[in-house]
Design goal:
This protein has 11 helices and 8 strands. The longest helix is centred in the first third of the chain and has 21 residues. The chain has an 8-stranded parallel β-barrel with strand order 1-2-3-4-5-6-7-8, surrounded by 7 helices. The chain has 283 residues and is an alpha/beta fold. 51% of the residues lie in helices and 15% in strands. The protein folds into 2 domains: 40 residues, no CATH class; 242 residues, TIM Barrel (Alpha-Beta Barrel), CATH 3.20.20.220. The relative contact order is 0.15.
Length: 283
């Protein structure tokens, strides 16, 4: 094992629940005990065959069964390339509908993660088709992407549920904002749109204290809006606890699985200070 791989594995213990459903559920129950919901994700992307995509979908169905059996208060979050988007659209759509049909047995909410820009339009299309079949679904929307706020409004008009995130994939500057200033400015603009126009629940997914404070101010201006804060496992636990104490809804995103390197890399890219945590993991 290389030094880099060793570092990634050490660092992953902070951000990843473990390799199994059982370990993910243990962390989910801890989150529940602290007044938070859990959002569980099985790590994995870019399945290259129908069999691999089907395996990914089956893992989520097993996860849904286990969450129900253990009484976990939470939802799941799915990456579409894990369930066949790189194979073909129909394979992914079929697997996604299989997952939501299974989720409907328990009334469990299903999130769709947004991936890199080549998958953007297909993700929006699959989400809207899924929403027609199962209303308890939502999709992540990345604030660093340029020129797509009309899509956000269209999804809201269709009764969509949005998780607003900053975005963490390496993208060309023609596609995304790269500076923190521009990303935050757009995040604020989109957040105001959600508070003004959303008719259903939505999520503000950020660890940025200033953006959290602004969301709280907007919630006072729009007291009828139903929303929650979402944050990643292992990041800003102090802020999560403070928000719970203040009576806000908080959900913790809890990944598990073996395919951890891409996930850890994105956590480092979105917040370079995480490199310090990576270095300390050697101690």
């Amino acid at each position: 094992m290389s030094i880099y791989e060793h570092l990634v594995l050490r660092m992953a213990r902070r951000w990843v629940a473990g390799s199994s459903i059982h370990e993910a559920l243990e962390y989910a129950k801890q989150a529940n005990s602290m007044g938070m919901k859990a959002i569980i994700n099985c790590l994995g992307e870019h399945s290259t065959s129908k069999d691999e995509a089907e395996s990914g979908a089956q893992e989520y169905m097993r996860l849904l069964d286990a969450m129900h059996e253990d009484g976990v208060d939470g939802s799941i979050s799915v990456k579409l390339t894990q369930i066949g988007l790189d194979v073909d659209y129909d394979t992914c759509m079929g697997n996604m509908l299989g997952i939501v049909r299974h989720a409907s047995r328990y009334g469990t909410f299903v999130w769709i993660d947004m991936e890199s820009s080549p998958y953007y339009q297909q993700t929006v299309s699959i989400y809207l088709s899924t929403l027609n079949q199962y209303r308890h679904t939502g999709v992540a929307y990345q604030a660093y992407i340029k020129e797509h706020s009309l899509d956000l409004m269209h999804m809201l008009e269709r009764g969509g549920i949005i998780r607003l995130v900053k975005g963490a994939y390496r993208e060309d500057a023609s596609v995304v904002y790269r500076s923190r200033k521009h990303i935050n400015t757009n995040f604020r603009r989109l957040m105001r749109m959600l508070f003004k126009h959303s008719t259903r629940m939505f999520a503000i997914a950020t660890h940025d204290g200033a953006l959290v404070d602004e969301a709280i101010e907007l919630s006072r201006e729009h007291p009828a809006r139903e929303f929650e804060f979402q944050m990643l496992k292992g990041i800003r636990d102090d802020l999560k606890r403070a928000l719970v104490r203040r009576g806000f809804r908080v959900a913790e995103y809890i990944p598990y699985g073996m395919n951890i390197s891409g996930y850890v890399y994105r956590r480092i890219r979105e917040r370079p200070a995480n490199l310090l945590l990576l270095a300390r993991s050697l101690l």
